[in-house]
Structures are given as structure tokens and as C-alpha cells.
Amino acid sequence: MASGIRDKVAIVGMGCSRFGERWDCSADDLMVEAFTEAVADAGIERDRIEAAWLGVFYQDQSVARSGLPLSFALRLPNVPVTRVENLCATGTEALRGAVYAVAAGAVDIALAFGAEKLKDTGFAGLPERTKGTFEDLWQPGFTPPGAFAQLGAAYAARHGHSMADLKRAMAHVSWKSHENAVASPKAHLRNRITIEQALAAPMVAYPLGLFDCCGVSDGAACAIVTTPAIAASLGKRDMVTVKALALAGSNGVEMGHASWDGSHTLTSRIAAERAFREAGITRPAEQVNLMEVHDCFSITELVLMEDLGFSQPGRAVHDILDGRYDRTGAIPCQTDGGLKCFGHPVGASGLRMAYEIYTQLLGRAGERQLATPSIGLTHNLGGIPNRNVASVSVLGLHRG
Amino acid sequence: MQGTGIRSFGAYLPRLRLERAAIVEAMGWAAGLRAGKPQGARSYCAWDEDALTMAVEAARDCLAGQDRSGVAALVFASTTHPFADRCNAGVVAEALDLAQRLRTTDGAGHQRAGVAALLDALRNARSDGQPTLVVAADRRVAKAGSEQESRFGHGAAAALVGAGPDLAAEYVAEASLRADFVDHFRDAEAEYDYAYEERWIRDEGYLALMPRAIKAALGSIDARDVKHLLVQGPQRFAAAVAKAAGIRAEAVPADLHAECGDTGVAHPLLLLGAALEQAQDGDLIVLAGFGQGCDVVVLRATGRAPSAGRGTSGSLAAGVANRDYVRFLANCGLVDVDWGMRAERDNRTAQPAAWRRHRDLTAFFGGKCRACGTVQFPLARACVNPQCRAFDTQDPVQLAEKHGRVKTFTEDWLAVTRSPPHVYGNVELEGGGNVFIEFTDVRPGEASVGLAVRFVFRIKDFDGVRGFRRYFWKATPVRS
């Protein structure tokens, strides 16, 4: 029986660039910005990094293929750099690679990186891409909002909510993230909005209006990981360790089998169960102090509250409206603004989420700092509700 | 003894019908006298329809309740085949999943092509008794403000010709007459017809040629016994031909100008469908095609219903009138609409992949697992049922004729489509099977979870760079 990853690896340094429309920056600039912060935080020399993983999703429009863009940008000393891609879970996948390498004892110090330069396409929204030679011949020509919007009508029908009630809860999700982003200096969208503004916004894909959709941003984030022993030798006292890194991939059931009703994300449920088991968490709603989930769209965050086990089936609408996931609520969600307002440079997002958890656990979150969090969760949903990769990671604080 | 004739009939008209008043309103300033008096509406294709997709729908209508496996030949007549060099009939046959030994032919080049194909099919049936599916469809595009723009309609009709005891109409006689009379023409490289004066066409074309051919076909039959005279062209031409041929004026039916317009190669067959729906047992029908001569077919109705599907009357009734002239122009490709940067996506088709899965894509086949019975799309090496997942247990099963129920949907205003919003979602099929699929002919606000849908064959994507188009099936609401 595998023993899992719990507490075998510590994060000793993290960095995150400012997210946003970084018209004047190349991917190199963003990578250097994030890396400079991370090595200073870790207190190590660049050359102590023995291996690196680079997560990039939109290779043809953004950072280009292979691990070399990172190797070039940071002038790494010819260490192995592996490029990974797993849809919107790409950043988390890079972290997984680095953490597993350290846990395996293959290297002492590894670097996990995620970067994306989306605003070089010259148009709004995410770039178009092929779905595969056969899939292009029959799958709908969907957009991300259109694919995720499908959850809305199905969720409302499944639980008997009126679309008006559901829309109000979705508006609250976005309103909350905008509120949080005001106190999040590196976030892309730092303006307040009103519930009414969100409800009155132009329709993008029914039932998602403009404010139900996250930002499309440039950005980079990274983590330097090592063993707890080496972390201690570097003088780290309060230490953030990896409690769990779980991943679940669709196998076609959602798109091709009657057992999926379209109102939830199957893989998130499976990944959450695995992650809680690995982390030794038995009562998630009581033990998890904060979370950064994949709020690419407000409806996604809403159904995830149920998929991750924090709300009872059909109750997320009420819990959200009751403020349970606000910064002042029982389990704050997206304290940095989330994908919605911090932005979503796809390959960087998983590591950006980890960066916020890390920052909060170490008490460095400034005016958005939570009281005394000790366990945080990140979640990515890569792909679309009927074909996706879900990741759930748990990070914990060990006070020295 | 078994006769030969028409076993069944099918029709299809696009749902979109443009009120001619909207044409005059928009183009009257330019058309002047040519605008004429606006009457009724004309049918036109949605952005994802062409002569080929209409042909498939008419053929499906015709084959409702018929044995598809016995069809020996398919002829697809049109002057607007989407492909100049690729057997269009072959695509229709593939969509219908007809037998592999099938003979496929495109009939093209003139307005008489539909009647000519019917005549040939009847001849073949008389010689070998083998059933032929004749499909005629046209999507003619005319210049803005032209007489043709108002007169034309888009549509399709199909007839299953063969031998048998339960025919809807029996073959009686035929005649042909060739004459290189140029009433109009379209150069092989041209987009539009060039037409000459109507009065000359009537006098020197129709009246000089058609009565001769009709008389030749009728032989000893008394022209006054003809109950239905179906002539390609305007009703006033038909009336003049009836008079000249000694056929009673009541035998000339409405030409469907008000309902859908002149659907070109399909039109005589569309009229035939309407006549068969009303004909009594024993009624004599004269069908006369016109185009560089005449083909005349004489049939005798049996009184049997020609269609188990919607037929001509059902197709006429399924239209929705609108006054959206600019959308009509856009659908006809006459307005260069900016679809945004997303529309620049390269839709190059991976032909080897398309060929490997051609039956799944064109005839909409999925797989049915022998181990657990789960129907699925696409057919795969391993069963999708999470309780099964067996390898290599799936038999092909056709999904095209199944109905379904909407599980999820959206109306996407961001996605590229030539008819925003782009509606798509997950559909669960009756008898099993789930598919993520585009919807078509659906109005904003019409889709809902639980909505009953059926499937239609449509254009999936255009590849503008290479001039290719690819087809797939789409969900559309079941409308009673």
C-alpha cells in the first residue's frame, strides 16, 4: 500500500507575478518576476535547483513548447526541465512533478513553474484550439463559457431551483471574489461590483453573464520544494508541507453515459475523496480553513461547493447566499479574488492558488489575512464539465 | 402481375421562409418594375443547409417505413450540388446507410434533371424490378433585387421507384423531346442564372415543345382524362400548356409560389408529392419537366398514401415566415459578414480520420455493447459504462433515427456560428446513448432541460481556406 505524499515535501519558497493584461511583458518577464520572488523567499542560490517542471497550456499562442522557455528565461544550469500540460490543471501538474521528484529522493530541491501569456493573441477570450482530428469532426464548436454554462440549466433542473435564484447565488459568488480582490495587490480585476450589476450584465452563454466569467490574464507563478529536513536546514521554522496531491481524469462517462446528469463535476468528487484520504482529513468542512477552487465561471464554483463536500446536494445556493464562503464566512473561498478576479493564465493558475494558500498559512496576506488558518485546499478543473481533469491539493502549516 | 411506379414519396423544405414583402421593402428601390407584387413567402436554407443536406432529409422522409436495404440505386439530381467533383449522391447514400453495392449517380446540368432521373428510374424498374431512390434538391442563389431572388425557393423531394403491389402511383407512359432552347443558363464558373424574356420562353419554349411531348406520351389516352398536370414553371405557363394540350384547366394545381417558391430541379417532384396526397385511385397524372427539351411521365394514382412521413404538405406546413432579408442574404452568401477573429480557426479536415470513422460521422452510428447493452457514441474499443468497460464488445448501431432528450444546453453568444447564439448540449437518446452535440433550427429561449429532440443531417463546419465543407448530425426540437 502506497504511503502517499503527506508531509514528505515542504514548500520553501513561492513567487507570483502580478496577473493582468501585461501588454509590455513577455513570458520571460513574467517568469523572472515570479522566480525572483521565490528564490528570495527560499533563501537559496538559483543553482541549487536540480530539476524543474514548466506548465504551459496554450503552447502555440503563448509560451511555446517544451521546457526550454523556462530554461532560457532563468538561464538554468542545464538542469532537466520538463514541460507538462493537463488543461487547466497544468500548474498543479507542474507542482506534482516537482513534489514527487523530491519525495522519491531523486533530487533535493525542485522547481515547479506555471506561466501563460494569453494576451498576445490580439483578441478577447481564450484562443481557439483543435480538440483532436476525430473530435473536431463531431464535437460542438464550444467555448469555455458555453461548455460550463451547461451546468447551470442542469443544476437548476436537478435541484428544482428557479433560474432567478440560481442567478442570484452565482452573482454572489462573483461579488464576493471582487470584494476579496480589492485587498489582493497582484490581482487582475480589483474593482468592486454590485449584485445588481452582475445580474444585469450582458449574456455570454446562458445562464452566464459577463460577470459570471473569469478574467483572461497573463501571469506566472512558481514554487520551490524540498524535503522538510532540508527546509529546516535552510532556517525555515513555520513550514508549509504538501498534505495531498490528488488528480482524477474523465474517461468518457460524463459525455457518453446516462449516469451523469450534467449538474455536477464527477472527477472533482473523486479527486476530493482521494485528497482527503491522503491528507488524513475526515471532516473537510471543519478541518479545511480556506480554499482556492476553479471558479472559471460562477456556476463552477457553486457546484464545486457540493462536489468537494462543503455543501449538501442542492444546498450550495443557500450556503453561498448565507455568506458561508465569503472572507468572513466559515470556509473562505478565493481570498485572493480567485480565477474570477486574480485572473486565469491557464498554466499558472494551479500554482497561483497554492501561492495564496501558502501566503495565508504563513500569515503574510496583509489586509486579507485570515485569523489562523492551518489547512488550505486548492482545486482545478481542467477541460469542460463533461470531459475534464480535476485536481485537489491540500497544503498544511507546521509551526516550528 | 406487379406494376412499376412510385412506392413512396418524401419532401423537405427548409424551415426558413422569407416573406416576399421584405424583399420588396429592402430592394424595391433598385428592382423597380421587376419587384412585382409581393405575394407569400419563399423558402431558404439555414446557414448549415445545402442541396445535399436537403436531399438527405427528403430521402429520409421518403424512406420512412420502407426497407432501406433493398434500394439498388440512388440518383441525386440538382444544379447546385455542393461538390463539382465528389459524388454528392455518395454522401447522401452514406448518410442514409444504404447498401454498399448501391449504384450512385449525380444527375446535373439542367432544370429537367429531377424528372429525367425519375423517368430513368422507372425505365430501370421496368427492366429489372430493382428499386431506385430518386432525390432532387436545389439551392439556387440569385442576385439581390433580381426576379429570380423572389421567385426561387430552396427545397428537395424524393421518390422511391420500383416494382410492387403497393405502389402509390403506377407507371403508364413516357416521352422525351430534346431541344437546346436557352430560356436561361448558368455558366459553369458563374454563381447566378442569366434569364431571357418570359413571353418568349412561354411561346417558343413551353407552348411549342411541351404539348408535343405530352401528346406523344399520352398516345391514345384522351387528354381530357388527365386529372393532374404538373408542369415545371409558373402556373400561368402550366395553364397555357394545359389549354394547348387539350387538358382541362382544373388539372393544373397551384404552383406553390406563395408557399415556398420554385425549388428548381426539386419542384416537379414536389408538385407530384402534393398531387399524390390528393389523388384518387385511378387518377391520371402527367408530370412534365422542362429544360433544353421535355421529359414527360404519365402515372396513374392508386389512392394509396404516398408518404409515411411529412410529404409535400407537411413540408409546406413546417415553415416559419420571417422578414429578415439581411439574414436571408447572409445565408445565401451574398453578404460578407464579419464573424470575428474566432472564425479564423482552421477547419482543415483530417481525411484519413474522417474516412476511418465515416459511417459513425455521416450515417451517425454509435456502438452497442454486447456485454452490457449500453449504447454509446462514439463507438470505442472499450465500453463507456463504468460498470462494464469491456474491450471490443461493441456492434455498430445507427442513432440517426432515434429521438432524444436534452440533458444540458446553453445558448452561447461567444462561439462561432453563422446563426448566433450557438446552441449545443448533452443529449440522452431513447434506448440509450448520450452525445454532446450541436443544435439547429432552434430559437433563443426554445431549448430546455428535458426538451424532446430528433436529429438532422447538416453542415458542421466550412473550411474556407480549401473550399471544403463537412457534415454531421445535429439535434433539433421535435415539433408536432
Overview of this structure, please?
Chain A is of the alpha/beta class. Chain A is built from 14 helices and eleven strands. Chain A has two domains: 10-121 and 218-237, Peroxisomal Thiolase, Chain A, domain 1 (3-Layer(aba) Sandwich); 144-205 and 241-398, Peroxisomal Thiolase, Chain A, domain 1. Chain A has helices at residues 27-42, 68-74, 90-103, 144-159, 163-182, 195-200, 228-233, 253-256, 266-279, 284-287, 298-307, 316-321, 338-342, 346-361; strands spanning 10-16, 51-55, 81-84, 109-117, 203-205, 208-209, 218-226, 239-249, 290-292, 375-384, 387-398. Chain A has a nine-stranded mixed beta sheet with strand order 3-2-4-7-1-8-11-10-9, with helices on both faces. In chain A, strands 5-6 form a two-stranded antiparallel ribbon. In chain A, strand 10 (375-384) and strand 11 (387-398) form a beta hairpin. The longest helix of chain A is centred in the middle third of the chain and has 20 residues, at 163-182. Chain A is globular, with a radius of gyration of 20 Å. Chain A starts with 9 loop residues before the first strand and ends with a strand. In chain B, the strands form five sheets. Chain B has a nine-stranded mixed beta sheet, sandwiched between helices. The two termini of chain B are 39 Å apart. Chain B is of the alpha+beta class and 480 residues long. The longest helix of chain B has 21 residues, at 198-218. The mean pLDDT of chain B is 96. The radius of gyration of chain B is 23 Å and the shape is globular. Chain B is built from twelve helices and 22 strands. Chains A and B meet through helix 4, strand 5 and helix 8 of A and helix 11, strand 18, strand 19 and strand 20 of B.
